[in-house]
């Protein structure tokens, strides 16, 4: 079974994806990690994340082991990493370079320890429209910019990252604009995706909503 969960930053995709992967014993693929890795690699090497040719080179040289190594860096999940990821993800050459890696995973999904899985939950921006348009179930998760900024600000504060709510909101708004206006695979729901607005939902309510959809599919 393949489940795709797309949507803007801090909408609740990651929490939902990991919960569903655990509940249905499926592999979990956070596609955003690929773009964060490429973006951060460029930042750390002093390169411009908006230089398409250099970004393409970094994307082609990316391996899972290098991605996991970069994920341990303190800026991987910070505003620095998020902004760099958004910039490189807007580049068509980068998206093409990373597409095959994402699609191949659906053919042979595995858990973190390398053991085979019977399916995968994708967490990303275009997994239901581009990566796996043939997915069994697709969700598109949204929330208001203010709610998402509040969530991300609380996350950063808990990690000791020095920022302000206003800065987080501005960064999210700018990222939404880049993601929705990029020429290749813009952020948008697949025609057959289930829309899930988490603005006024608890995490459990979000999970329960998705579980009802999935269980109904499995019972059919």
Task: Kindly describe this structure.
The chain is of the alpha/beta class and 220 residues long. It has a single domain (2-198), classed as Rossmann fold. The chain contains 10 helices and 5 strands; from the N terminus they run βαβαααααβαβααβα. Strands 2-3-1-4-5 form a 5-stranded parallel beta sheet, sandwiched between helices. Helix 2 packs across helix 3, helix 2 crosses helix 4 (64-70) and helix 2 (32-44) packs across helix 5. The chain is globular, with a radius of gyration of 17 Å. The relative contact order is 0.21. The model has no long low-confidence stretch (mean pLDDT 94).
What's the structural blueprint in terms of helices and strands?
Blueprint: E1 2-6, H1 13-23, E2 27-30, H2 32-44, H3 52-61, H4 64-70, H5 79-89, H6 92-107, E3 120-124, H7 127-131, E4 137-142, H8 145-158, H9 165-181, E5 194-197, H10 203-219
Helix pairs in contact: 1-10, 2-3, 2-4, 2-5, 3-6, 5-9, 8-9
How many DSSP E strands?
A: 5
Determine the structural class based on helices, strands and strand pairing.
alpha/beta
- Could you state the oligomeric state of the chains shown? single chain
| CATH fold-type name | Rossmann fold
Give unreliable regions as ranges: none
Task: State the main characteristics.
55% helix, globular, 220 residues, 5-stranded parallel sheet, alpha/beta
Quick structural gist:
The protein has 220 residues and is an alpha/beta fold. Helix content is 55%, strand content 11%. The chain has a single domain, classed as 3-Layer(aba) Sandwich (Rossmann fold), CATH 3.40.50.
